[in-house]
């Protein structure tokens, strides 16, 4: 029996592999073929069989139809790389990160298509700022635009609740917020796609909730600056001056939005300590951080910015916290919570994709514009989990 070869353009095989960041050796290993065999396909000297092509769809995360296009698709958005985290190289992305970027772009386009299906216009994202603006004033503007009241914020007293509330408020102004699950925090904490309609923010679910909240606000400022980017929120002198300026501005605004100057300075604990003090106790820092649902490092950094502690004290606290965080990260890998998420696909889908995106998919389903199998595909769950998602969404 004659083996049927796939009639495809070799350039599409190279494009699919490179767009996911695989080397020839990596891809060959995953496809269970030799490098010479894969090279011969990409150079047009031979062609894969249909079954081998189906294997490629799994490895490269592409639908089968893409490989039969006349030429490789164009339009993959290249983002500004603001990362300077230890061990990362600017502009060099892992296959996992490239896949998250691609998924974010595809989900945004899907959201636009689904809005058009129900005859709704996407909300334009009109908030904007400039690097010359006062970060404190921009922080006030963000809180007002998102409807975050101090009375509500101090009632949360939990970093996970805080993250969910900030996320909901940001989604309400037309921003899609997704959570990445397959990329290590050491490579990516957050990134954004700054579009005039349905912009996107992606944070890393492997990060701590308070860190995700800060990343969320940091990326929101990027959207206001109209700058797509892959960020780490660390400030360092090894960045080019303009990039450093952008990241410092985004950090300052995020801190001002999360911890308003007037509110922080009117706290009894802050008043009692006075100016540039180093006598803060761990319990006092923890209490204030919990009050605003932020990390202890963010809180101490904010106190430093407002002249309520010293640079030496901040560096000491930060060093202590980094050591503690490293221990917690090791422990976090074994947490039952992660197991519970994997055992609860409906809740995980809502957590990763956001109620705004999931709600849009379900709305089209209710109006018979999507089939059950399409809903399953868009949300990344099995068909049997869709009713449970309806329950969680309040349908």
Protein model, in words:
With 395 residues, the protein is mostly helical. The chain has four domains: 10-74, lambda repressor-like DNA-binding domains (434 Repressor (Amino-terminal Domain)); 78-258, no CATH class; 260-334, no CATH class; 344-392, no CATH class. The protein has 19 helices and five strands. A five-stranded mixed β-sheet has the order 1-5-3-4-2, sandwiched between helices. Strand 3 and strand 4 form a beta hairpin. Helix 2 (24-31) packs across helix 3 (35-42), helix 14 (296-305) packs antiparallel against helix 15 and helix 17 (345-366) packs across helix 19 (386-392). It is globular and about 85 Å long.
Give the overall shape: globular
Approximate strand percentage: under 5%
Q: How does the major sheet shape up?
A: 5 strands, mixed
H/E element string? HHHHEHHHHEEEHEHHHHHHHHHH
Strand arrangement in the largest pleated sheet: 1-5-3-4-2
Work out the helicity level.
Answer: 55-70%
**Discrete helix count:** 19
- Chain-averaged pLDDT: 87
